[in-house]
Amino acid sequence: MCIFSQPVISVNDTQIFARQTSRETQFLVYQMKYESSTLNAMILPIPVRQPARDESLRFIDLKDYPEFFEDLADGFPYSNPTFDISCSSKSAKSVADKLQVFKVGNYIASFVPGIKDFSRLDKRFTLPTSTWAKIPLYQNYGFAVFQLAAGSLKPHPMAFEFETANDSIYFPTKHIHDGKIHDEEKFDHVLYLQHAGFDSRVYGYKNTNVVDKSTGLIRSKFTAKHFCETERTHEIVSPNLLVHRKFIRGEHPNRDTEITTVGDPENPTLNFRYWLPYAPWVLVGGAITWFLIRRSKIKKMKAAQSDKPIVDKLGSEKQPPQK
């Protein structure tokens, strides 16, 4: 789910997309359903490369692509999830000033470079210093903050690109919904990601929820351009890569999720595993082809031999009998 600055009544149906780039950044897209009785804010911690600057994160507006996650789900035939995300970009002022606020689609958003910079943000949209002190991992993190209206809503997708400090793909899944940090929380997440290293290892597509044994993730049937309008994503989704997903549901340790990657994030290598399911058919086809070619050669050899003159014991030639 995520971290909220004020208590929420409920949060569910969380969808997150992530993609690393060759320029050492990561895209992140986020959407969920929530119910809050008051004006609230969602705080997404991110492992931003240090020293963090106000320009270390770029918001992206996906308001005009509300069906973003629905299209991603179409890459896994026979699945029925629903999803979405949104945001935009700019830089902020010096640490002594108020943080710059961005109007991104239907959101008011800010980037907080570090915990100390929450003092530059409206107090309604942060957590007490004592709460942050209980999460030492976040001392070197930045934070994307989105103001949320009161009510029972499913806002359009939120999206941004940030300079990442991680080699792995990062998903902000730690929960703080009531101002307290619990060891375990109830999850209702679908995580989507793209990375060429996974494309280079996967086997062929099986079915909507079948996990690929080489990655531990579910791969899409085709590359993203076949089911996602990638030109509407502002380069968030790579058209020529597969999409992989992971479900996290039920009670789990309350922590963020990182997925280890190997290889170039954008350029897959040749993958022979994809063709393994077709190997038996290729072998059968090859054997049949060899048999037909061999039979044809034998026929030609016999025909050639039957056309040769016959030499008797005295050395005189006899013509082969007429057919």
CATH class of the largest domain: Mainly Beta
Estimate the strand proportion: 25-35%
CATH architecture of the largest domain: Sandwich
Structural class: alpha+beta
Determine the number of helices (DSSP H or I, runs of at least 4 residues): 4
| Radius of gyration, whole Å | 30 Å
The arrangement of helices and strands along the chain is EEEEEHEEHEEEEEHEEEHEE
Q: Using the coordinates shown, work out and report the CATH topology of the largest domain.
A: Baculovirus p35
Question: How many domains is the backbone divided into?
Answer: 2
Identify low-pLDDT runs: 79-96
In total, the number of strands is 17
What overall form do the CA principal axes indicate? elongated
Please characterize this protein's 3D structure.
With 323 residues, the chain is α+β, with helices and mostly antiparallel strands. It has 2 domains: 3-269, Baculovirus p35; 278-318. The protein has 4 helices and 17 strands. A hairpin with a 2-residue loop joins strand 6 and strand 7 (107-112). The longest helix has 28 residues, at 279-306. The chain is elongated.
